[in-house]
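4.2 Preliminary Data

To establish feasibility before requesting continued support, the project team ran the inverse folding procedure on a target of 423 residues. The structure was first converted into the token representation described in Section 3, and no sequence information of any kind was made available to the design step. The complete token record follows.
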């Protein structure tokens, strides 16, 4: 019997499984990667050796109004480490610059002060100007025309009014944007709900190129990149993380060149060969990405690529923050998957509903696979209403799956389904 810890909420949940039934355990090499440096050394080294731009302190010289875009409470960006150093670099070049930290929420709920203190530290919350993006306040946005897809581009006015725009984030595989990081800080990070909705339309998400690890010809990526170029992001700082959310690499400099370098690094460690199973067990890598059911589809989409037709996916997701959004919850509980998909496919891009995209991917999966959700926080009746089977532990879920698929079912385990790209 083998014990496999599955990331879950702020810890792990153990899966106990007979070795003989294991087809594969798929783990990204990022999880065991040893950079040979401290996190702070990695961060400072990247800033001292930017890709495609002068150092940040040189770019900051003479700048009066600086906006630094950072990620919200749903992301693992180690801002406690990175923000103080980025602020130090900006002030090294322009000691008197007015700096605004703009929290990129996309369509997520606003980041609370308590969450900001956990993410950034008390010193930054008490001393710096922090603005939390709210995509539902139209007065905060300016229209900069259209993007390659034809979508209207409305972005937070602070990004347009500043004379130096800097972003920070982290790079990992993304189930329809290819990879996170870089341009994603702008779109969806600080765009209006209309722009985000259209970028995430049914048509865009249904593209065969809107997939994990794919950037070329990806319509979602193309609009995101065009948006970041339009507002003149002059400097990015992105990190790569291991399974413990520790920095193992950092990439600074030009919007495209630095992001490409980071993507190449992450891809080299994240790509894993495909294995097929009758049962596939995964997670979202634990907190903060497993806060709600809405986010859980990211790992489910990875599991889908390894699950045989009519197989069962077991998703371990704490869901401490519930379903994750009223629209998502409504769509997920409105009927059988095929009916929901038909409803979503009829929505024109410019009329896209917030959160429909994660529901779109979920119903695509649910048309072909049963999904068992392991959650301590989400009530069983809500799980069933969303078309899934509730379980409290990975072992309970595996027993339920075996009862349906038989004792000889082959099992694939992907402990962190967000960290891998299946090829």
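Position-by-position output of the design step:
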């Amino acid at each position: 019997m083998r014990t496999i810890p599955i990331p879950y909420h702020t810890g792990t949940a153990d899966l106990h499984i007979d070795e003989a039934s294991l087809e594969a355990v798929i783990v990204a090499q990022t999880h065991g990667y040893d950079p040979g440096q401290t996190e702070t050394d990695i961060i400072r080294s990247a800033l001292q050796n930017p890709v495609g731009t002068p150092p940040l302190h040189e770019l900051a010289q003479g700048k009066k109004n600086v906006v630094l875009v950072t990620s919200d409470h749903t992301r693992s960006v180690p801002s406690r480490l990175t923000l103080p150093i980025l602020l130090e670099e900006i002030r090294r070049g322009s000691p008197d610059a007015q700096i605004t930290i703009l929290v990129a929420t996309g369509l997520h709920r606003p980041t609370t002060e308590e969450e900001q203190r956990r993410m950034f530290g008390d010193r930054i919350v008490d001393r710096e100007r922090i603005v939390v993006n709210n995509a539902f306040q139209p007065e905060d946005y300016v229209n900069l025309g259209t993007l390659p897809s034809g979508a209207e581009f409305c972005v937070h006015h602070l990004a347009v009014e500043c004379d130096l725009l800097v972003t920070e984030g982290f790079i990992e595989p993304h189930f329809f944007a290819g990879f996170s990081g870089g341009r994603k800080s702008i779109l969806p990070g600080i765009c209006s709900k209309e722009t985000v909705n259209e970028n995430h339309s049914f048509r865009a998400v249904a593209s065969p190129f809107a997939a994990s690890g794919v950037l070329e010809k990806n319509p979602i990526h193309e609009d995101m990149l065009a948006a970041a170029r339009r507002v003149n992001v002059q400097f990015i700082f992105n990190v790569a993380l291991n399974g413990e959310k520790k920095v193992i690499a950092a990439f600074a400099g030009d919007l495209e060149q630095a992001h490409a370098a980071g993507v190449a690094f992450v891809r080299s460690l994240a790509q894993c060969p495909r294995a097929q199973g009758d049962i596939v067990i995964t997670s979202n890598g634990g907190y903060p990405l497993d806060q709600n059911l809405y986010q859980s589809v990211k790992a489910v989409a990875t599991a889908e690529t390894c699950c045989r037709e009519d197989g069962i996916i077991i998703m371990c997701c704490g869901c401490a923050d519930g379903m994750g959004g009223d629209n998502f919850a409504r769509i997920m509980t409105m009927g059988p998957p095929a009916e929901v998909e038909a409803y979503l496919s009829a929505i024109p891009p410019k009329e896209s509903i917030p959160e429909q995209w994660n529901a779109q991917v979920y119903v695509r999966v649910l048309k072909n696979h049963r999904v068992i959700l392991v959650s301590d926080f989400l009530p069983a009746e809500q799980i069933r209403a969303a078309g899934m089977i509730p379980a409290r532990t990975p072992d309970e879920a595996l027993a339920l799956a075996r009862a349906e698929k038989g004792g000889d079912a082959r099992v694939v385990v992907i402990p962190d389904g967000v960290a891998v790209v299946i090829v």
